[in-house]
Amino acid sequence: MMLARHPAGATDLRRRVTMAFAREMPPPPAGRACEMITAVSPALEDSVFLKACRRQAVPYTPVWFMRQAGRSLPEYRAAREGTAMVEACTKPDLITELTLQPLRRYPVDAAILFSDIVVPLRAAGVGIDIRAGVGPVVEEPIRSEADLQRLRALEPGDVNYVAEAVKALVAELDGTPLIGFAGGPFTLASYLVDGGPSKSFDKTKSLMFSDPPLWNALLRRLADITITFLQVQIGAGASAVQLFDSWAGAVSPQDYRQSVLPHSSRIFAALAGTGVPRLHFGVSTGELLGMMGEAGADVVGVDWRVPLDEAVRRVEPGKALQGNLDPAVLLAPWEVIEQRAIEVLDAGRTAEGHVFNLGHGVLPETDPGVLARLTDLVHTASARQPG
Ligand code: CP3
Q1: Which residues, 6+ apart, have CB-to-CB distance to 266 below 8 Å?
Q2: What distance in angstroms lies between residue 294's CA and the mean position of ligand 1's atoms?
Q3: Cross-strand pairs, 325
Q4: pLDDT tens, residue by residue, 170-189
Q5: For this structure, is 131 an active site residue?
């Protein structure tokens, strides 16, 4: 099954834009080409997504959507029918199919691996399930030193099915980058300690404040699991990785610096030698954006609460930004969507590199036709006004 691009018109446009741009580009400086081809194939090096992550000139703004695979697509619901979420994440053929589904509809500039942040935890023996409409639920939460002993290290062989799916996907994707991902330390800890989804993360934050040695031991172990999980994905051919510390915005800047940042920094440092762009995203992290960059990310993801030109001021130089259209805007009439998307593109032009995305995942009730139209709009509107 090769990836059939759809709609064809949009892909043609992209090819034309890329070719026009290639004609205008000066040749790369001597020695540069070799230096750049460290982790990915030459075809991937031309990818607009990877170039934007690396803050290089691009012919148009690349776009992909968090949760582009999933419940907004009827073909996803059909393919998943009868298979539990956690089980689906262990079947290479299904992972491959679900990852490719959105790319058959939208000419997005990257695929994201179909998986979940709980996958490496389950693979390391944690009793954790994903309940439909609820989220991850843990059988026995981790709240003591004895509980922590149950959390063993992840061995690469524990997630062979992920490596297998990534390899199959890289072959199918034919030059479109595949983004691998993992959960960030605070977010993973929040499920393990609170035992499931939480609004205020009481038990998690209580552990963080009351027992720093246990907190740090837990986050060190989670960071090790995350490093192994991401190394497996990169080793199998993922050409970028995103660390989803979705709920890190629940802590103050001071607590983030003291209790979360050291662990995220260790994850990013462990991946530095791979040469793949590292993206870092969380919700309600406006006050943390600078530190999320400082942790070692190449690209800082921004939710819809902070305009991208303000995010530029909050993040140190040398970082690209990703974001940040409010996912709920996609439920409004097209004229509203168009205006808001153009505003995001305009603000994004102030960044050293910009990857268009939503400020969080696609809402299940989103019309896939709107995402297709938005993808084309991002490409054409950004190509008309090169930044
Ligand atoms: O973005 C993509 O297209 C890739 C797929 C992806 C999933 N989970 C699939 C999924 C990604 C990147 C994730 C990451 C993830 N999982 C995060 C971080 C991203 C974010 O949204 O902030 C978090 C916090 C989780 C934990 C989790 N898993 C939640 C909160 C839920 C939703 C529960 C629900 O039913 O509302 C899940 C389940 C899940 N993960 C689904 C999908 C497609 C829905 C499963 C279904 O079809 O029932």
Answers
A1: 220, 223, 227
A2: 26
A3: 358
A4: 999 999 999 999 999 999 99
A5: no
